[in-house]
Amino acid sequence: MLRTPSKNWDLVGEIVTLKEKALYRRMPEVSGIPGRIINIDGRSVLNFSSNNYLGLAGHPQILEAFSKAVHTYGAGSTASRLIAGNTHSHRQLEEFIANWKKTEAALVFGSGYQANLGILTTLTNKEDLVISDELNHASIIDGCRLSRAKISVYRHLDLNSASDALKQPGFRRKLLITESVFSMDGDHAPLKELLNLCREYDAFMVVDEAHATGIYGPSGQGLCSALGAIPDVQMGTLGKAAGVSGAYVAGSRSLIDLLVNKARSFIFTTAHSPAVSEAALEALKIIVSPEGDQRRSMLKSNVKRMDEMLQRVLPRREIPCHIRPIHVGPSDRTMKMSEACLDQGLFVQGIRFPSVREGASRLRLTVMSDHTTEDLRKASRIIETLFTARVNC
Ligand SMILES: Cc1ncc(COP(=O)(O)O)c(C=O)c1O
Fold first, then answer.
1. Ligand 1 atom with minimal separation from the 247 CA
2. Is the overall model pTM greater than 0.90, yes or no?
3. Which CATH architecture is the domain 18-47+292-392 placed in?
4. pLDDT per residue as tens digits for the range 150-189
């Protein structure tokens, strides 16, 4: 007779605990093309919760490139890049990225998560030290863990703490990794100073530009280029400002060769479809064009206006950013506030543990280039009302 699973397998109990802590997640359903307006769970609302910062996800040229490529190359790549999934479209995209980033070479991954896993596990192992900002993204944390290197976490943006970590002797390699624009806080890493420290201690520097690609620097190359601090490894995503999906790593030819040969998250996975490459290439062509400059400048002025409009309830930011955390604290209250926003026609997602620390839940408000002045006004009015009235949350 089959025995029933023991109570160690009480999955229902685990879900109940998540619900009790207001940490239970569900996936809202989006329909139509998400832009400044999003249809979410059947409600058409203002979208202040998207990484589609430049509004490219619905751009007609990108959609056209995508659908043309599907008819030319088929729906999927059918295999990993090293077996039979590598196409002219993948190569063209990588050549474009290397040219744009002014690096010897570039490699495209299926996602940013895979790229960070690939970078960290290829470059480091148990003989090495990885120095990581305490607020780095989960994909970096997981990459650190998988690498089996010793992980030294430094205080967020803190150069003294990073320097102390870098000083540790006795390792084959040292590698420092940071986001350039932090995904949940919208603050910027001191890239130049960190790069100087890395050079002092013979460490490789890896920068995750997921939320800076397309937005900062000449032709949207990212914050590293904007600050003139070019690290050994530049990583960025193609699913946020570029509006498509996937990620890139840009650097030396030997770095890319090594990733092709050793990054398991690149080797052991089906290549993304050539149509995705073609669409991403089209998105990057827009990003580097005068239209890209125009979208960046619209975004910049929207960010500034939003910061001004919110100042009655939130302190002005030293460096305004398209990512604006609105700190609430407890998870249940955060989710109630997010729900109250939705009821008034504003989508601004609540962010909880483990995306941020326990007790540091927040609304993550993101500004797009496509938002109108009226959109910004409406969003700030709703947030102001919520914060001043505390709407029974
Ligand atoms: C800083 C950072 N790195 C990496 C990723 C992962 O990128 P992707 O969504 O393409 O897997 C994200 C996305 O959430 C991110 O915010």
1. 10
2. yes
3. Alpha-Beta Complex (3.90)
4. 999 999 999 999 999 999 999 999 999 999 999 999 999 9
